[in-house]
Amino acid sequence: MRSLGIGRILSTLLLFLVSMQNCWALPKHQPVPGGVAIVPLSSGESATYKNLPVMVMEDEGQSFAVVGIPLSAKPGNHQLETSSGTIRFAVNSKVYETQRLTIKNKRKVNPLDQDMSRIRRDRAEIDAAFVNFDTNFPTATEFTLPAIGPISSPFGLRRILNDQPRSPHSGLDIAAGDKEPVTAPAPGKVVATGDYFFNGNTVLLDHGQGLITMYCHMSRIDVKKGDTVTRNQQLGAIGQTGRVTGPHLHWSVSLNNARVDPGLFLSESLVDNQQ
Length: 275
Ligand SMILES: [Zn+2]
What we know:
Layout: H1 2-21, E1 36-41, E2 47-49, E3 52-53, E4 55-59, E5 62-68, E6 76-82, E7 85-91, E8 98-101, H2 113-130, E9 151-153, E10 158-161, E11 164-166, E12 172-175, E13 181-183, E14 188-196, E15 200-206, E16 211-218, E17 220-221, E18 228-229, E19 234-237, E20 248-255, E21 258-260
Parallel strand pairs: 8-10
Antiparallel strand pairs: 1-5, 2-3, 2-6, 4-5, 6-7, 9-12, 10-11, 12-20, 13-19, 14-15, 14-18, 15-16, 16-20, 17-19, 20-21
Bound molecules: zinc ion.
């Protein structure tokens, strides 16, 4: 117990020192589908990947492109287009496990025709938020967990819902009781909120330079579009709205419109939390 207390004091002190210097740690380099590639750039260079602008960060005087790699990416050579030419980087393979789930509300797996216009509208709103690229505020890439609870479903699982293959799990799920708080993992701006068919009550936060996070299935939303939020500010409460098997937070992290593993942005390890 004593060591836990000291650990907490040390981590608070570290966070304080980091925020004093306003120097954010880069996410972990894990160049796989659903991962992040950190690619050195020349000073002042900008870059695009798959025709979208990518985040550029400085670390100890060196410029880096921080590139989100979609889960659908093929392993092999990928390329960044920069202001001075093409930079190649390797994407390695990663095998994600398969998960089978049974959803009681069959309409959430096979929507009715009358649901389709709402689903299309939801998707357009969410997709528009994911392609934001805002450079008007400092980019925050070091996250704290947005809810307290066990990781009930990790990022990237290949999913079979009611025996039908569906898109892979594009976020991570934190199981917690109904009404437990959902908090901002870093400073950001609320770019969308809504009650969506699959995602339920949802908040999307912009952390700058194409880094967008999404919070789904909430029972309550406490912020509105345009709000600026600070780290750990409450966004709402855990719930079970949308397509769920029970109350939990679905947390997605998107970088240059690629949904990537949120664990790469956390300073604490998720391993202890997995069981
Ligand atoms: Zn989920």
